[in-house]
Amino acid sequence: MSEPVTMDTKLYKLQDQRALSMRELLEYFTRHGSMRVSDLHLKVGVPPVYRVDGSLQKLKGPPLTRETVLALARVMLSDKEWDQLEQSRSTDSSYISDTMQFRLNAFHDNDGFALAVRALDPKPPAVEDLGFPNDVWKDIVKKQFGLILITGITGAGKSTTIASLIDRIAETRACRIITLEDPIEYQLSSKQAIVSQREVGRDVPSYERGLRDALREDPDVIFVGEMRDREAAAWTLTAAETGHLVFSTLHTRDARGTISRVLDMFPSGQQDEVSNQLSLGLSHVISQKLVPRADGKGRVAAMEILNNTYGVSNLIRLVKLEQIYTQLQSRTKDVPDERMLTLERALSRLVREGLVTPQEAEKWANHPNAFLDELQQVTSDADE
To answer: What is the reported pTM?
Structure first.
């Protein structure tokens, strides 16, 4: 009788005839840290591939076979998740080792099978270490109500930013916190707060149902993992409008695009109502990107920050979104009723501090010409 396959079974042979287990493949994250090595991709037909400092790097070994990928994935998935993979052709999961936590997505593709593994530290980093360009985080953790949207592409650190903010709230306030996540990424301790983390698919069937439940569970703070559809967006806006502090994420690249995306979730006949609701309920939009550092040692966060001041609220209500960038450019003082910043100014500051090269910053800018103008301005300010 053959021995059962476990996390320590040597399943992948390298070119030098050494063999690696799934546990050893994951230990690469531990050695270098999740801020540098963020993902592992296992796919039929290519060697294991890590994302290091934002770029893909292949292991020096033969292409993975279907049998090897299936075996590596099987040791990380429960029986229930494996059945879901067979029925739905994809499944989400998580795995906790002695030192780190991992978010998994197993799926079928044209070549047969693939697994994406995202590394997470067991606890979120201190909010001071995230790289906020001003003190806006201090305003956010003190807020009692309103909608905070953290946006960016996949892998931009949205969940990490929200987890750090909520963790600080849990440390400093006696409040009730409920999170709806798919899957749970960071384990949050209650501390002064009472924290309940619910995983969509395991503890609750959908974000919509979770939000309906949450409004009857006496929450002060709610985290909605993602505003995926109209129903989730409608309930998220309602929760913010009814006096709760609500955090959520969207896959948008800037503040203007974020507001536009929320409005576009609803039919044209509802958009006036939603724009009014959003103008009143929105607190902040933080759109972030992780940019490779100049020294090659990891990545640094660049953040565009929108504060829903009276002027911004009026623009949202009237759907004059093209004027929002001007507000971001002009209301930049580091005081509570301003603290706004364009991504281009944030990038130019990182260049001035020597953290990012000008060429790399320009690649990540949403508006390259505006970035060059900002870079020239900060350079002039530094020379004075």
So the answer is: 0.85
